[in-house]
Design goal:
By secondary structure, the chain is of the alpha/beta class. The protein is built from 20 helices and 15 strands.
Amino acid sequence: MLEHIQIRDFTIIDQLELSFKRGLTVMTGETGAGKSILIDALGLILGNRADPGMIRHGCQRAEICAEFSVKPGSIAAAWLSQHEFDHLDECLVRRTLSQTGRSKAYLNGRIISLNQLREFGGLLIDIHGQHEHQSLMQLEKQGEILDDYADNSDLLKKLISSCKHWNSLEQQLEMLRQTNEERNAKFELLKYQVEELDNLDLAAGELQELDEQHKRLANANRLRLEVQSLLEQLHDNDEHAVVRQLSQHTTALERLTEVDSKLTSASVQLNSISLQLQEVASDLRHYLDQLEIDPEQLKSIEQRLSDIFDIARKHHVSTQELTTLHQTLKQELSELDGFSVRAEQIEDEIKVAEGKYYRYALKLSENRKKAADMLVCHVNQKMQQLGMPHGFIEICFTPIKKQPSPSGLEKIEFFVVTNPGQPLKPLTKVVSGGELSRISLAIQVSLSDKVSVDTMVFDEVDVGIGGGVAEVVGQQLRALGKNRQVLCVTHLPQVAALGEHHFQVNKKSELENTRASIIELKNRSRIEEISRMLGGIKITEQTRAHAREMITRAEHIK
């Protein structure tokens, strides 16, 4: 239940504090005084979208704090516990707005996301706006009303989820079918490309080896001539071979070491060099023995390299990327080859999804039809109490041919008779504004028993109603307040007189500054306000007596 609210620098309110009690609280004021400002403030507390234009002119930020009592064991208390928000019997919700467009929300001192605030706020307050009756003209809203009354929220979520899943599978299957020709063409191309790469059979490291072999065979004559020349100079020339000359120098240096031992190191090194050159000569001779000049092998290698480069150019990749390309194409071919298997899998999944959807849909239809009978009975009773003695509604179900539908198996539409002798016609076509608001109020009152929140707010839902019907409306609202807190913004004195608590909204303009204030009325001040609502500009003693009588009569209502 809403216990207390503080508002600072919000629209035309600079500073405001109000405390609230259980029962019916009415809020009145002159036209244009800003009676709905409090409703707007509560909307922000419930997570409605904020706008810098809501900040009072000349101020940098606005702030709204609301204190609620939370019953132990209630859904709201369970939510607080589930989300680890500390609370005793009270909780504090705070919302701030800044000129930069930023908005922050806090719950019991902890920052909270707007999604969490909307979720939690919906467990605290149920607001019926002054245009609520107009939304009743929408078929979607009529379906929502019946589902709310039938407590179908969880079932609807499951139905919508299963509907989305079924539709998604159908779309996947359709896409597979639509691309079948394109898939076949791509499959044949991939098959050819993979077979070509399979036949190429390029081994790891083969390209480097082929390149080396090609260089050697293509330059075989040059290699033989130059290696033979080198071998001649190193070893085979009897007179001028480097090895022979080095051997002579080594012998000479060895003799000198007998004279001076300091030459020993140089002698050893020179001898080692001589031996190494002999090994080099031996390796060169062995190389010449192994070197082949094979034109046929060279031709074969050149053809192999040409095949590799041709395929690489065809796929616009380097020769080094051919192996990776081969694996990629094989993977794509495998996926396309599994088309028929995947299509069969999806068809099986569709059967399962279809069965699941219809289980939820049939249960939803059953719930709706049971609830429709009860809702019609309650609403018709309330309509008669609200000055429509011959009026009644019926709820009709029209099968939806195209399935699956997130709305279930049927379209829900309210039909109404407002006067005797008239046939049933769609609610959207036959009612006047006053009739529509009364039907809307009858529905809202009927739904109130299904609402688990402690606080209900009605913002001028009595538009288009007057006379004795207005008093009945007030009685209905007062009856709602027996078990909960009801706040009602009204322009009707008959409704205002039935309030157990009464607030008045005033607006005052000074030069370029406008301020709104809200004060609680009691005794004489309340009589004056209801007299104003009854008599207009000039208030007479007779008007005051009438107002006093209305208040006294309301106080004796049990």
